[in-house]
Specification:
By secondary structure, this protein is mainly alpha-helical. The chain is 69% helix and 4% strand.
Length: 273
């Protein structure tokens, strides 16, 4: 078992809640414009996986260069702006858009400048809804399926072969912040202490975001029955954490993506029945 039962159930529960919040935010914006005059990218829904995957590769390359050169301040500045931008979109589904910006700036401060593990994880629950709201309309089920397959393959290569995703995750941890859920064993990794945590339970932001993006595209077409996809994805994550070795790094996307496709298959079966 990769983590103890309490940490495992907490991580899976947070993942599932993030999916539900993300789907709510996605649904909110399906019939509304994004706040603050933000425009969605104009991609062909049939081929949108091509430019989006290219953007992911370029962004990863930039992140690796920053990590390689140890430009921690640049990394924090980039991350700070990204958090404010995406979180403002997500929170505008719950609050006035200007209040959402203020909240996002405050959260960004305690997430990046003065890190707090509780604010970090709570904000992660809402972040990915903003990304989903922005990108779901530029995909259809075919294109998001191709993107998910590409991400599954890329994640496996990046963790098991080149291992650059492992290096990037370690750089984020050393920089005192992390894109995704981070649960320390017994002590906060964001506070100076004589006691240093030896282990963390982590789940990368990409694992949360790409799963939600697939669920969101299917949700836009099929409605509430699509909730079977985050349920199956959560079960896939639970299986990985239960059967995984605590001393190994695993690419989560092959497991989460496979579970998403199983969920989609069940959805189609239910529609036929």
């Amino acid at each position: 078992m990769k983590h103890n039962l309490n940490v495992t159930m907490l991580l899976v529960s947070m993942f599932f809640v993030a999916q539900l919040i993300g789907l709510y935010v996605t649904d909110y914006y399906l019939v509304k414009e994004l706040p603050l005059g933000i425009e969605r990218p104009e991609f062909n829904p049939q081929t949108s996986y091509i430019p989006v995957f290219a953007i992911i590769l370029v962004a990863t390359l930039i992140a690796l260069v920053i990590a390689r050169l140890r430009f921690v301040r640049l990394w924090k500045f980039w991350f700070f702006l990204s958090v404010i931008f995406v979180l403002s979109i997500s929170l505008s589904a719950f609050f006035n858009q200007y209040l959402a910006v203020v909240i996002s700036i405050i959260v960004g401060y305690f997430k990046i400048i003065k890190p707090n593990v509780y604010i970090h994880n709570i904000s992660e629950l809402f972040l990915y809804g903003g990304l989903s709201a922005m990108f779901v309309p530029v995909f259809n089920v075919f294109s998001i399926s191709i993107l998910l397959l590409l991400i599954m393959g890329y994640d496996a290569i990046a963790v098991w072969k080149t291992k650059h995703m492992v290096k990037l995750a370690k750089f984020q941890s050393e920089s005192k912040f992390f894109a995704g859920f981070l649960i320390p064993y017994g002590v906060s990794p964001f506070k100076k202490s004589a006691k240093t945590p030896k282990r963390f339970a982590i789940l990368g932001g990409g694992d949360i975001g790409f799963t939600l993006l697939f669920s969101g595209v299917v949700f836009a077409k099929y409605g509430l029955i699509s909730l079977i996809i985050p349920v199956m994805a959560s079960l896939g994550l639970l299986s990985l954490l239960i059967f995984g070795n605590k001393n190994k790094f695993y690419p989560a996307m092959p497991f989460l993506g496979g579970s998403c496709f199983i969920g989609y298959g069940l959805l189609l079966l239910f529609n036929v029945l």
